[in-house]
């Protein structure tokens, strides 16, 4: 008999304070979703006319089942998908609905494609005006999910999505219908292409003008070469890690390549399991009760121990709020001090997620964290009670899906390590505070010698202005780039990832450089020290708008401080500098998102634009 280790005291104390902080709002949320559960299938509340509209196009076997609305009726599953064939990560999802419908019928239930949600790619829009819609697309996806489920035809949901804003948006939408069970169904990463460090080297050569666009495009095409998620450990793959460690995937689903028999078997199994956890099944598991304080803490720990995307310091807050739970960046920071770094994946290392999977993957990570008392093991999951199932991994035995124990030891200690011998004793993310506000830094990819510096500020209100200054040869010196008016209210908080190549080139030339911004960075960014998500943002009068060219800025990732070294009296007397943001309000659809910019919360509040009391005023 294996004894359960005691929970780490920091994990216990952070969880308890989240419970206390959230007590009133969580209770109100649970009361609402419990009241929403009916005594029969969801469609039983519809009129005959309503129901006829909903089943008019259903094939005959499904139509027969859907007409039955008694207490013994079989459940109907909602398929909500981010499929499109523009984006490699979501193209594989096109085949999934047919598999899910077949599996549902085999289980005596039905499934309908309830609705599609938009899926934009930050890789396509990176550095372009369309990136200013990216963060807000999360809220659009949440609302589109709600529209899909609003037909009140469904007893459980299957949520098909992979990338940056899509999975958080789907989960926020699903939590609005928290009485319905839900399973997330990923598409998997593409097979490995050009090595990530080689890709970064070629990008650097292009930034320096040493190679042309043809050579750069050839390298990029070798990196992004087939259907599936990009293989670096950015936000998309951090999403998949989160759904795994939060118990919202079937165990081991995250990093199985598309186009394989195993990949097909997993959506079919998800459909069968969704039938079992529906209100009509033997293991009713509403998603709003599954996603509790312990599950969210497990997600935070997974993010920290793998050096995951900084974008989730925003998304996890918004997801928690959707479940009536309040988390903040201090929670992230306190957990980070207790949670070791167990992985070394690009941009924190050279390996990609396929190599991570081969070395032991999420099964090994979860096994290690559970054994060290660093996860809540007693949570509910879509696979059943307890997180221990997620130390297993799926496989095929004579064509049948089975789960086996995962790797007990890392197969590559340069990629994946046990708790007893981590890459670092603490997590990959850190809170930054000081007279510029509150923000975060991803330290797992920053070399120790770059983690503390003081240098003069160079202030820019647009990332392109910095790139232009570089091309003019004006940045051959030590400096801290202060990029302001990049927060959600200013322009939708676009990622500023295209700055990383230029700043990285300057760092390699021996200059001390850093970035301070109220904007976001890509989940693939890292080696240049960057205090990001500074809040309050400049557009809300935050102190980052007080910085002037030449101010000495100290960034200390060891102590978690970022300050303008300006005398306190002078700093207090300075006014924040406003700028004209009109040019960010039109073009590529930006005019349609004015309400989002006008009502959005700060980054630490999840950068959400919803007006429900559960989302505002905290």
- Indicate the low-confidence ranges by residue numbers: none
Backbone structural class:
alpha/beta
Beta-strand portion reads: 5-15%
Number of strands: 16
Number of domains: 3
- Characterize the overall form: globular
For the residues shown, what is the average pLDDT?
A: 93
Outline the structure in words:
The protein is an alpha/beta fold and 618 residues long. It folds into 3 domains: 9-191 and 226-405, no CATH class; 192-225, no CATH class; 429-581, IlvD/EDD C-terminal domain-like (Glucose Oxidase, domain 1, 3-Layer(bba) Sandwich), CATH 3.50.30.80. The chain has helices spanning 9-36, 48-55, 60-67, 96-106, 122-125, 134-149, 166-176, 196-207, 213-223, 235-245, 261-277, 287-290, 293-305, 312-322, 329-336, 353-359, 361-371, 463-471, 488-491, 498-508, 568-573, 594-599; strands at 76-81, 110-116, 156-160, 182-185, 380-381, 384-385, 392-397, 400-405, 429-434, 437-442, 452-460, 479-483, 513-517, 530-535, 552-556, 561-564. Strands 9-10-14-13-12-11-15-16 form an 8-stranded mixed sheet. Strands 2-1-3-4 form a 4-stranded parallel sheet, with helices on both faces. A two-stranded antiparallel ribbon has the order 5-6. A hairpin with a 2-residue loop joins β5 (380-381) and β6. α4 (96-106) packs across α11 (261-277) and α7 (166-176) packs parallel to α14 (312-322). The longest helix is centred in the first third of the chain and has 28 residues, at 9-36. It is globular and about 75 Å long. The two termini are 45 Å apart. The mean pLDDT is 93.
């Amino acid at each position: 008999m294996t004894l359960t280790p005691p929970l780490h005291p920091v994990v216990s104390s952070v969880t308890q304070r989240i419970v206390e902080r959230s007590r009133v709002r969580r209770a109100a949320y649970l009361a609402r979703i419990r009241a929403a559960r009916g005594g029969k299938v969801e469609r039983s509340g519809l009129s005959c006319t309503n129901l006829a509209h909903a089943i008019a196009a259903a094939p005959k076997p499904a139509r027969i089942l859907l007409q039955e609305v008694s207490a013994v009726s079989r459940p109907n599953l909602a398929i909500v998908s981010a499929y499109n064939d523009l984006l490699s990560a979501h193209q594989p999802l096109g085949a999934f609905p047919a598999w899910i419908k077949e599996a549902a019928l085999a289980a005596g239930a039905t499934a309908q494609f309830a609705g599609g949600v938009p899926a934009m790619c930050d890789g396509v829009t990176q550095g372009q005006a369309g990136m200013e819609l990216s963060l807000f697309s999360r809220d659009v996806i949440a609302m589109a999910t709600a529209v899909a489920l609003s037909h009140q035809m469904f007893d459980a949901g299957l949520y098909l999505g992979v990338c940056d804003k899509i999975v958080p948006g789907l989960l926020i939408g699903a939590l609005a219908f928290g009485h319905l069970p839900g399973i997330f169904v990923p598409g998997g990463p593409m097979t490995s292409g050009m090595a990530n460090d080689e890709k970064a080297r070629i990008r650097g050569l292009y930034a320096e003008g040493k190679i042309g666009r043809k050579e750069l495009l050839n390298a990029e095409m070798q990196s992004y070469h087939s259907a599936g998620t990009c293989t670096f450990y950015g936000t998309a793959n951090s999403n998949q890690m989160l759904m795994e460690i939060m118990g919202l995937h079937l165990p081991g689903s995250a990093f199985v390549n598309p186009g394989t028999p195993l990949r097909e078997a997993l959506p079919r199994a998800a459909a069968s399991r969704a039938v079992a956890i529906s209100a009509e099944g033997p293991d009713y598991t509403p998603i709003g009760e599954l996603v509790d304080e312990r599950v969210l803490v497990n997600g935070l720990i997974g993010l920290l121990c793998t050096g995951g995307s900084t974008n989730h310091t925003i998304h996890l807050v918004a997801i928690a709020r959707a479940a009536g739970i309040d988390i903040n960046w201090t929670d992230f920071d306190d957990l980070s001090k207790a949670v070791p770094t167990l992985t070394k994946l690009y941009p924190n290392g050279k390996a990609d997620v396929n190599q991570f999977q081969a070395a032991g993957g999420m099964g090994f990570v979860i096994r290690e964290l559970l054994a060290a008392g660093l996860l809540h093991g007693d949570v509910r999951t879509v696979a059943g009670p307890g997180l221990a199932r997620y130390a297993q991994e799926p496989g095929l035995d004579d064509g049948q899906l089975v789960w086996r124990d995962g790797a007990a030891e890392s197969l590559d200690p340069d990629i994946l390590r046990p708790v007893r011998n981590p890459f670092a004793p603490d997590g990959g993310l850190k809170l930054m505070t000081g007279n510029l506000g509150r923000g975060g830094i991803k330290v797992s990819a920053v070399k120790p010698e770059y983690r503390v510096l003081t240098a003069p500020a160079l202030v820019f209100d647009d990332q392109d202005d910095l790139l232009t200054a570089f091309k003019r040869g004006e940045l051959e010196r030590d400096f801290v780039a202060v990029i302001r008016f990049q927060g959600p209210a200013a322009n939708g908080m676009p990622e500023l990832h295209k700055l990383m190549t230029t700043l990285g080139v300057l760092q390699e030339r021996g200059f001390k450089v850093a970035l301070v911004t109220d904007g976001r960075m890509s989940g693939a960014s890292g080696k240049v020290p960057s205090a990001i998500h500074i809040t309050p943002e400049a557009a809300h009068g935050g102190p980052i708008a007080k910085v002037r060219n030449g101010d000495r800025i100290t960034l200390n990732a060891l102590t978690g401080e970022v300050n303008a070294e300006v005398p306190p009296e002078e700093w207090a007397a300075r006014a924040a500098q406003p700028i004209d943001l009109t040019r960010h309000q039109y073009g590529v659809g930006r005019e349609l998102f004015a309400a989002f910019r006008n009502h959005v919360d700060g980054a630490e509040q999840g950068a959400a634009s919803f007006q429900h009391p559960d989302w505002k005023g905290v």
